[in-house]
Amino acid sequence: MEPIQLSILKFAGDPIETSANPEDTVVSVKEQIAELVQVPVLCQKLWLHEASGEQVGRTQPLRKKRMDDLEEEFQYGWQIQEVRSFHCPPQGVVECVHLSLILLCASSTFEISDSQLNVRGHRLEQWDVCKRFLENPVEYMSALKKFSDDICAGRLSSDQVELAQNKIEEMGHTFSARYFQRVSEFCSLLVRWVSCALKLYHAVNAKDGPLELEDDFQLSVYADGSSLQLALVVDPEALFESMEDSMEKKLEAIAALKTLGAKFPDRALRELGTALISGYAELRAAALDAIKGWPANEEFATMLHNEIPIFYREPCPKNEVLAALEHLGPQHPQLLKRVATGLNAGNCQRKVSPKKKKGKEWKPAEEPDEEFCLETFKRLQLEEDPKKVLDCLAYAIFHPATRRANMDIICQALSLAASRDYDTAVHTIVGRAQFADEVEEPWVRARAAEMAMCFAVKEDEKVLSILRSCTDLTGSDLCTLAKCYAHLSDGETPFLPILCADLPCGQDRREVLQTIQEMKPVDNEAVIKAIMRYLENWEGLLSCFGPMSMLDACRVMEQVAISDPSPLHKAYTQLLKALALRLARPRTNDLYDLQCRRFLLDKAQEKGGANDEVLSCLASGFSSSIEPIRRECLYFFQKVAKSPDADVVQVLLEVLDDDFSSWSCSTALEALRSCCDAELLETRALRHLLKLLKTKSNSLVKCAALKALHAVHNGEVTDLAARLARQDPIDSVRLAALQLLRGQEAAEVSNLAVEVLCTDSSETVLLGALEVLTPLSAAGSAGKAAVEAAKKLLIHPSRQVRLESARLLGTASHDAASGVTVVTMALEALQAPAKVGSGDLSHFGLALAGRSVAFREMGRARAGLPAEPKVLAASLADARAAVSLAQQLTSNSTLALKAARALNAALAESGEGPMEAQQACDALAGLGFDEPVKHELRQVAKDGIDTAGLCAEMDASAKDGESPGTFRWPRRMVLPTLPSGPSLAAAVTEKGWGPYLRQRGGEQMVNLERSKLAMMLDALSFPLSLAWLLLQEPLVRIASGTLHVVVLGATSKAEVRILEDSDYWEELGRVMAPQCKVKLHFVGPEISAESADVHQTQPPCATQFFQAHSDLNSSNTICAVFNGGFGNFVSSGRDELFHSWLQDLTFLADQHVLCAFFCANDYADLKGEVAVHQLLGSCFALRPRQNPFAMATVYSGEDSSEWFSGNAFVYAVCGFERSARRVELSTAEVLQIAQSDHAIVHEAPLPVRLLESERSSSGSTGVPPVSTVGEMKPMDGGWRFEVPLADASCMQAADVQISDTQLSLVLEGLRRVVPWPTPVDSASARASFSARSCKLVVKATSQ
């Protein structure tokens, strides 16, 4: 086709002649014009002045298509709901919706009339009318989409168009899609829709007249022949609107202002000024380039000065600003002052625009602002009068906003300016220091002195006299003045006495101290006194500044006290006393406590030890009513290094003489015992201690005094201790006296202990006496009296006393020197019960059962000693009598259990069969006891287990802080060997142990289990319980591969012992072999030795273990917790275990790891654990239920109210429900939920798929698992994550959790955690499913 010749008329000048192809768009013509006349495309508008109706009509199809395309964007009902939710809508929203309704009066599908819209009144009343028409979003949006057809059909009238145009005029600047982008996305679309509708109306009703050309229309639409005459109109409004658009639009608009901005400088410089202080380097560079395209003009420079905020008021980039100002007005009177303020305004560190949007970070500057300002200043000051330059600098130096500013750069500028006119600099800058206080603030005078150091000549008397007149300053201002004077003069400073006076109590004490140190005074008495007064205010110094504030003073004293070192010694003594007194007093601020403790020990060691004064200060803490303070002071009193001349005994005796309280005396006595040897105690403190024992009545003090005398062997001490052991009314004192006598002669101690056994009724004292006699008995020194006394205690009500008596007798009876045989003792003791009973048959029965245990202990074979059959026969007789009484007293379950256990143990020790014990237990079980008691009796009858003995043995062997656990079989009992044979998965069923034992090993397995009691079943319960859970098809689906099993909370006494002493854990691998391989990991804090699969880890165990093993995840790992006990606080009231598990439980839920939990009872452990998971929002894959492979042994407490059986109950969780999670859990909340008996359980999606990702990666077809797909894409203002799916059914069990830092996605049982590239606003994030592309889409906006 032939080109079209274009003639384009301008506002002034000759027309533009050019040509273009008919298929070229209008925007391409604008680009040609921009090259010819330097008018940016953004500002151009092309018009046909005399367009014919035919030309206008040719635009109709294109305008209709444009409107149809726009109507496709009205897709989502939430867009309308967002607008309808406005109670008081923003400006323009009511008018915009009303405008759309005016046009829709012509709709063929939307029923509305002009009269319904003709509402006069408040805009909220108009809004109520508009909202009624938006109640049906589908109908409203359908009318919008079909309105282009209504216009083409001629339904839209000229009256309606006129009403709409009048409404647009009323809206003014608010009728803009860009305006509504910040208010409502839907209203922004409505504005574009109205504009398209009106243009389409004019195309349909074509008339002759002017016509604006659309950028995307081809020229052929408008051309009637081979030529076309157009008019060019320059419109700056589009340019300024683009300054609020995207970064690309802003840069394009700024580039246009380079050529057009000078024609409307006020608006142009307002926009360019904003760009010059922008946080984006691209905008600043473009704005500077645009301004450099303008000619220099003082008026323009003034306008730009007014647009740029003062650097002190709003920190902003300065380089481009100053370059632009210098270009527009190099001689402008404000330029040099502006440059001077940039010298100490600091480099820009935060994003601050004229709209004061704070909190954003600047991009790193290519050149520091202050350095650029300095270079600009050096260039400009050469052309200015020195006085003006110094006045500008003075304005910047003494501006109130620069009080804490960095003055390094401006000092360089001041030095440069002063070199041109020194006298004026002294007058202008330093002269500000000598003005009266009411004229200048103190900091201004100090700043003037500080600036003098930059340029003043040394020993300049004029400057020095000004400085000497400022002696009224204090604090940091005085320090600045003193440093300046010392810098300018080598003579004696007049400020040292003032500093000394200000040091003890001034607000800036540490700075004053540092200034004195810099002045280096030697042997100055005033300084020495000032430092000592400073140190006396130790309490405020330690609380506010810590011990370094006092140590600095001591170091200054080292520099000052040269001739006489005594002040230095006093200073360090004061330091140590202050640290000691701080420990001894109650504290509210612990910020410096740790530092004070370390300083006390270190400095005492460094300075030769603490003297009596320091020790007395520490000992003053013994009188504190707060126990931790007393303990801490005692610890440091014992640990601190002591000087050779320190009299520790005297210090502690003074505390005893003060007799402030019982706790002060007892603490001092404890310090005396630990810090003094026996010789020192005997020579210096013996009289004092004996006096305390004779005069004091307080048990705490007397016990402490007796302990302090342990190492003293003195007849008077022995006599007094013996008297106290016999006569003191307090149990603890009698016991302490007995323990003191343990080191005395055997005969004396033995006689006293026997006397105590015969006369004392206190259980603790009796146990102490037995403890004293037992080693004497083993050595053959106990004698007949001791044996006789111990015999009488065999029926004591206390079980512990009976056992200790039996141990003593069991040792003494084998010693021929005692003159007594075990047989004689036993036969004589059989007559004793008649003397015990006084109608209390329960007590009598318990005594018989207890004595049976004692006889069994005495008669059993041990440590090379033979068994005594007659004693064992006596034990069996007592046990039978106790069982007989228990059958009569059916209300005493404790007696029944103890009698049954005693009979079973006596029969076993005597070598008789368990049949009699089984019959007795069956008879007792038939009585009216509670179910746990009956269960325990049946257990004894079936297996002959002495659970009470096992518990006592395991409890005794447990270390501090460790639990004996539920697997209570001592190491001395060897785990049975399993018979050879296959471990069939078919045998692990809901029916439990019976089918498994028979299929695993037949009758041989059953007989093995009976002969070894329940030990084997208890150990097998661990692997088989987990195997049973993994075989539950509705719960778990396992593919081939290696399944990692992490046993959390494992202990050396249970899970690890079974691993080391047997092959029981291999049963799990044998059962699961047809499906997968099993890899075991044992993790917990109560593990004594580590190996490749055993990991000793402190809580939080799971968190640390999974962080160290990144290859383990929710798709290849299951966690098992056997009898974790973190819910037991429901019964015990102790929540330490709960809090130690809490972080791990949260972590495992967040990671969607399948976790199996096994509990020992339902009334405490299970209730508490379910309550914890409910508050965590955990999703249950298996609801709580009984475990078919629970341990066979049941244990009960002394009163039978509590019981437990390992792995008795089971449940499993996987993932969590975000809406149900509590951010913080308290014990009280969990306890309340546990006691409510109403648990809200969230179900996990089933089945839980394990090892699916390994199977998929090894050659499967179809859609890959979630863990290997998904794409993160940037979008406008945030991020978009897309996951392709096989079909819509995949969304049925989908779980999407969104946080500010990551996205957690679970599909088809597989989980993936994807971090967001930048932090997002999770509250506004949305997830949706696109049926067209079959994708899950998650969108989130950046913070």
TrEMBL record:
<protein>
    <recommendedName>
        <fullName>Ubiquitin-like domain-containing protein</fullName>
    </recommendedName>
</protein>
<dbReference type="InterPro" id="IPR000626">
    <property type="entry name" value="Ubiquitin-like_dom"/>
</dbReference>
<dbReference type="InterPro" id="IPR016024">
    <property type="entry name" value="ARM-type_fold"/>
</dbReference>
<dbReference type="Pfam" id="PF20179">
    <property type="entry name" value="MSS51_C"/>
</dbReference>
<dbReference type="InterPro" id="IPR011989">
    <property type="entry name" value="ARM-like"/>
</dbReference>
<dbReference type="InterPro" id="IPR046824">
    <property type="entry name" value="Mss51-like_C"/>
</dbReference>
<feature type="domain" description="Ubiquitin-like">
    <location>
        <begin position="4"/>
        <end position="69"/>
    </location>
</feature>
